[in-house]
Amino acid sequence: NERGPMIELTKLQNAKIVVNAEMIEFIESTPDTLITTSTGKKLMVQESVEKVIELVIAYKRKCLETPRKRT
Known about the structure:
This protein has 71 residues and is of the alpha+beta class. 24% of the residues lie in helices and 35% in strands.
């Protein structure tokens, strides 16, 4: 993955944000989607909980499909 562990989401003000998928700890519907990272940072995004989960799963699948270079 060119972006590393990142997924692209949209903040409530329509600004694009790139989030580290590995750092997501909780995703809540409040009714807006609230993401809490493992560092405690909270992000409100337009995408639904289901869409965020779908993006994280797609990222994880790409990781499993991509052969790693051995050094």
